[in-house]
Amino acid sequence: MQVAIIRKEMTPNTPMYMSGHAIRTEKHKGVLDPLYCTVLLIESDETVCFVTHDVVMVDEAYTIDLRKNIAEALHIPFEHVFVSFLHNHSGPEFTELNVFTKTREFASDLEYVQWVKEMSVDLALQAKEQLQPVCASFGKVTIDGYYGNRNGIDIPCDKEITIVKFENSQQTIASFMNFPCHGTVLGSQNLLLSADLPGAIRAQLEKAYDTTMCVFIGAAGDMGNRQYRQESSPKELDRTSAGIVKQILEKMEYQPISLEGLQVYPYEYVIDYVRSMEDTKAEIMKIEQELASDISYSRRQLLTSGLAIQKGHLLEDAHVVVSLKGAIIDTEDAMFVTIPAELFNRFGLEMKQAVNKQVFVFGYTNYSIGYMVEESEWGKNYESMASSIQKGDPEKYTKFIVERMREILG
C-alpha cells in the first residue's frame, strides 16, 4: 500500500459571508485559525482520493465537477474520488445559493470557490508524485466530559474517536481522524474564520504526531458539545480541544490494520415522497409564535435557522426526490462508508456494528441532503425541523447500507 497527503491553506483574504447560522448575516471580520484544503491519496489494489475542505457545506454540482477533474488528472474512476467537509460553522459560505435563503443573498464568492477547486486538483496531482509505501495502524478511544448527544446529556451517543496512522520505516507520514461531533463551539456571534473544534483537535494532534492529518466527520447529526461548553469563545475552543487531545494522547493504543485489497462499491438510495405543505405551514406558524415569545438567544438561533429552512420548503415542489449517492470501500481489515448527509449517531453505530471489521463512517461527503433523524426523536428537536426527508426514511436507508455491507462480505 502507498499513501500520500498534502495540504494548502484556503483561508480567504477578503471578507466573506460566514456559514452555518441563519441568524448571522455579517461577513467575517478576521481569522482565528487558518482553513485548509487537504488531499489524502491511498493506493492499494485500487486508488482512492479523499479531498477535505474546512467549510460547512459544499454543493453536489461542485463536487461532481471537482471529482471529474481529479479522476481525469489521476486516471482513476470518478467513483473513487471523495470530497468531504468539516462542517465547521465558522467557515466562509461555499455554496452557490445560501442554504437558508435559497438565493445568492449571503452566498459564496464564486471566484473563491473556483480558486479552491483548482487548488484541489493541483494538490491531487502533487500527492500522486509523493506516494510512498506505508504500513497502517489504528486506535480508538471514548472521550469523556466534552461532547455527546446535543439534544440531551443522557441520550445515548457515540463518543468514540478513531485515528489511523500511515508509517514508513522511519516516521508517520500521514494520518486521519474519524470524529463524530459538530464543530460549533464558537457559536453564531463569532465573526472570526475558524475550523472550530475538529480543526483545533487536528492542529494539536499534528504537532504531537509530527504529521499532516485529515479529519472526517462521522455520524454527527445529533452530536455536539452544547451541554458541555462553558461559553462560546476562542478560550472555550482551546479548553475543549485541549481536553479531548489530552485523552487521546493518554488513552489511545495503536494496533496494525491492513487496508490492502481495497475495492470501491458505489451505491445510490432514492427517497421519494410528497411533502404536506399544510404541515409545513403549520410548522412555520409554530416556530414564529415561539420566536415572538421571550426565549434564550441559543433557542432563537436554532429557531431562526429552522424557520428559514421551513420557508424554503414552501418554494420547492411538494413532490420530493432525494438521492443519496455514496460508496462502501472494503479492505482486508476495514470498511469505509461515505454518507452524503448529517446522520444521527444511532445510525452510525448500527453501521459500525454491522460487520466483523473496523468500520469508518464518513458523513458530510460529496454533498449533504441534511439531517437524518431517528424516528423516536422526530418532532423533539431542531434537526427534525430542519430535515428535508420524512420520518422513518433514515431507518430504511440505514437498513439498506447495512445489508449492502454484509452482501459485500458475502
Can you walk through the features of this model?
A hairpin with a 4-residue loop joins strand 9 (160-167) and strand 10. The strands form six sheets. Strands 5-4-3-1-6 form a five-stranded mixed β-sheet, covered by helices on one side. The protein is α/β, with parallel strands linked by helices and 410 residues long. The protein folds into two domains: 2-261 and 326-373, no CATH class; 276-315, no CATH class. Helix 1 packs parallel to helix 2 (110-129). The longest helix is centred in the N-terminal third of the chain and has 20 residues, at 110-129. The chain is built from nine helices and 20 strands. The protein is 32% helix and 26% strand.
TL;DR?
The protein has helices spanning 60-74, 110-129, 196-209, 234-251, 277-291, 297-314, 345-352, 382-386, 393-409, and strands at 2-9, 30-31, 36-43, 47-53, 81-85, 132-133, 135-142, 148-149, 160-167, 172-179, 192-193, 213-217, 223-224, 255-256, 263-274, 319-330, 334-338, 342-343, 358-362, 371-372. With 410 residues, the protein is α/β, with parallel strands linked by helices.
Tags for this entry?
alpha/beta; 20 strands; five-stranded mixed β-sheet; 2 domains; 32% helix; 410 residues; 9 helices; globular
Average of per-residue pLDDT values = 96
Q: Please mark out the parts with pLDDT under 50 across 5 or more consecutive residues, or reply none.
A: none
How many DSSP helices? 9
- Determine the N-to-C terminus distance: 24 Å
The secondary-structure element order is EEEEHEHEEEEEEHEEHEEHHEEEHEEHH
